[in-house]
Specification:
With about 120 residues, this protein is an alpha/beta fold. The chain has one domain: Response regulator (Rossmann fold, 3-Layer(aba) Sandwich), CATH 3.40.50. The protein is built from 4 helices and 7 strands. The protein has a 5-stranded parallel beta sheet with strand order 2-1-3-6-7, sandwiched between helices.
Length: about 120
Amino acid sequence: MAQHILVIDDDENIVEYLVNVLTARGYEADGATGREQALRLAKENPPDLVTLDMEMPGEEGALLYRDLAALPGMEHIPFVLMCGLQGIHHAVPNAVATVNKPFDPDKLAGIIRSATKV
């Protein structure tokens, strides 16, 4: 069974691109462009890893992380933070990496592969 990745970013193009990159590498991937959609998708199909844009308009990434991590079964799920803010990983205890935009898709795939090894 393929591992499931939840991609969260306010930019629909980035979400679509990342979902395509991940599915081409054998992952199951869903994308969300906002809080309500992300929470709904995480409840419906809990992911093995989340990529989270920390700088979405009108949304504080650390608060969305908190709400996602509070869902049943999500407390230990690794997060890859997508942003350019220094030290942001301190706000997210389950952060396994911080990736700046623009990002190298192969590097990101390697980070996800390392973080989702069972």
